[in-house]
Design a protein that fits this description.
The complex is a heterodimer. Chain A has strands at about 5, 10-15, 20-25, 30-35, 45-50, 55-60, 60-65, 70-75, 85-95, 100, 105-110. Chain A is mainly beta. In chain B, strands 2, 4, 5, 6, 9, 10 and 11 form a 7-stranded mixed beta sheet that branches. The chains are: A mainly beta, B mainly beta. The interface between A and B is medium-sized, with 27 and 28 residues.
Chain lengths: ~110, ~110
């Protein structure tokens, strides 16, 4: 079962612009995580937000979590060409402790 | 260097020939997990393990087996591979539920 659904599926922006990706999920969660994947490579953990947190920052990344709407967003500010990758949200299901991934947003940042 | 190591990176095999993909982590992590990634389907969890001798099924466990006899190793076994198991496989580990996972570099498996 897919827990997270991401929107948009693909996003193309110019360098310097901000990129926003959204994730919706269905069940109660312990935490929500965001990962980046460069083409065909392993995923890299970016940031984790716990269910009792509403916002978190890490460098150029800002993550928000709205548990009442079961949704999260990832904002990348001042994007760079090197940010071009696929971004996945993953939810840690509260009951079973499984980490379930969404299908990802493909971000392209043009120089 | 802290890492998750998968082997092999690439494998082409024939239908029905048993194979094992190894996964090893050097970070003393308790949680380990296997995922497969397919175009249009994203990452789907195959099995996960919360500690030695504790494993549970993910969303697509059929046709796969795992074991967790030692903390560092979590091999994925395909007893009788079929073409629909052609995929990109990832192993990942985490200290606990409240931390992000560290992923291996992936194993690209083709079953003909």
């Amino acid at each position: 079962s897919q827990q997270g659904e991401e929107d948009p599926q693909a996003l193309s922006i110019q360098e310097g612009e901000n990129a926003t990706m959204n994730c919706s999920y269905k069940t109660s969660i312990n935490n929500l995580q965001w990962y980046r994947q460069n083409s065909g490579r392993g995923l890299v953990h970016l940031i984790l937000i716990r269910s009792n947190e509403r916002e978190k920052h890490s460098g150029r990344l800002r993550v928000t979590l709205d548990t009442s709407k079961k949704s999260s967003s990832l904002l990348i500010t001042a994007s760079r060409a090197a940010d071009t990758a696929s971004y996945f949200c993953a939810t840690d299901e509260r009951v079973k402790g499984k980490l379930i991934f969404g299908q990802g947003t493909e971000l392209s940042v043009k120089p | 260097e802290a890492q998750v190591t998968q082997n092999p990176r690439y494998l082409i095999t024939v239908t029905g020939k048993k194979l094992t993909v190894t996964c090893s982590q050097n970070m003393n992590h308790e949680y380990m997990s296997w995922y497969r990634q397919d175009p249009g389907l994203g990452l789907r969890q195959i099995y996960y393990s919360m500690n030695v001798e504790v494993t549970d099924k993910g969303d697509v466990p059929e046709g796969y087996k795992v074991s967790r006899k030692e903390k560092r190793n979590f091999p994925l076994i395909l007893e009788s591979p079929s073409p629909n198991q052609t995929s990109l496989y990832f192993c990942a580990s985490s200290p606990t539920r409240s931390y992000g996972y560290t992923f291996g570099s992936g194993t690209r498996l083709t079953v003909v």
